[in-house]
Write a structure and sequence with these properties.
The structure holds 2 protein chains of 2 kinds.
Chain A: H1 5-25, H2 29-54, H3 58-88
Chain B: H1 2-23, H2 27-47, H3 51-73, H4 89-112, H5 128-136, H6 141-162, H7 175-181, H8 183-192
Helix pairs in contact in B: 1-2, 2-3
Classes of the chains: A mainly alpha, B mainly alpha.
Chain lengths: 101, 195
């Protein structure tokens, strides 16, 4: 019943697959952001598990910077989303085709 | 033994919570399940001995990011059911192949990593927070400062983007004044009600 590195990597893969399913099937942009957060968290688990089993702190450093990037992504993304919603009243991905040539 | 029990318990809980986040059609259910999943993920960090990262996970993700999403959702119509995308089968095929390659790469990685040695091994007799501080403020000082500047830029961008017309208090104005001040917004709101 020893929990090994492979257990954590399998869990991380399962969570990453769940996030990928979310990215593929969501049309609402807010829900798409949620799926992105799931992807980032899955990689965080993998980094921390590898850091623990190899005995190196670099993995935890990477997870730390990923959390910082996720926080800034949410700030900018939600700001843009609010501006878009004020302009159009919708946050559906399929209607964002104003840049189509 | 207890480690295995804790791992499997929290693994099942996290997978269930994130599955709810991905498949539900209610935005409020999604954000609640998401916050729960974030807290359950911090349990893995505590099991792995990364105490500092676990605390950061709870503070930043559950405290800051989820609160920011909750505030952001007040701007949107969250009671409406989320419409799903009719997926393009070619894109699903390509992404599925990519995910399969990713799984193979992850399972092959331990074979390749046998000759990896620790660059910054964990020091004996030093707590996790102290060890992280030692590595962060010596070896990773420049990325740390860059992350600080990036967070500042993101904060200013968020304020500038979302803070337009924040000087008018919509809660203290009457409905007629709001309709006069935001004629565009009102028309969109009535247009959105048909969906």
């Amino acid at each position: 019943m020893e929990v090994t590195l492979t257990h954590y990597l399998v869990l991380s893969t399962v969570l990453f697959a769940i996030g990928l399913i979310g990215v593929m099937r969501r049309k609402n942009l807010l829900m798409l952001f949620f799926a992105t957060e799931i992807l980032l968290n899955a990689t965080n688990i993998a980094f921390t598990a590898i850091s623990h089993y190899i005995g190196d702190l670099t993995g935890q450093m990477f997870a730390f910077f990923i959390i910082a990037i996720a926080a800034s992504e949410v700030a900018v993304g939600l700001g843009l989303l609010i501006v878009w919603y004020k302009r159009t009243g919708k946050i559906d991905l399929d209607q964002m085709n104003s840049m189509r040539g | 033994m207890f480690e295995a029990i804790a791992f499997y318990l929290f693994a099942a809980l996290t997978v269930v919570m994130f599955t709810i986040t991905v498949v539900t059609s209610q935005a409020l259910y999604a954000i609640t399940a998401m916050a729960a999943g974030m807290i359950f993920i911090s349990a893995f960090f505590f099991i792995l001995g990364a105490d500092f990262l676990g605390a950061i996970q709870i503070i930043v993700y559950t405290g800051a990011v989820m609160a920011l999403y909750a505030f952001g959702m007040m701007f949107f119509d969250t009671t409406r059911k989320v419409v799903e995308k009719r997926v393009n089968p070619q894109i699903v095929f390509v992404l599925g192949v990519l995910a399969a390659i990713l799984v193979v790469a992850i399972f092959v990685a331990p074979i390749v990593s046998n000759n990896i040695h620790a660059l910054y091994p964990v020091q004996e007799g030093v707590g996790n927070s102290q060890a992280i501080g030692m590595v962060l403020f010596t070896k990773y000082l420049v990325p740390f400062e860059l992350a600080a500047v990036m967070l500042l830029v993101a904060m200013i961008a968020g304020i500038v983007l979302a803070g337009k017309k924040m000087d008018k208090s919509l809660t203290l104005m009457t409905e007629e004044d709001i309709a006069k001040a935001h004629p565009q917004h009102e028309s969109h709101h009535s247009a959105g009600g048909h969906h």
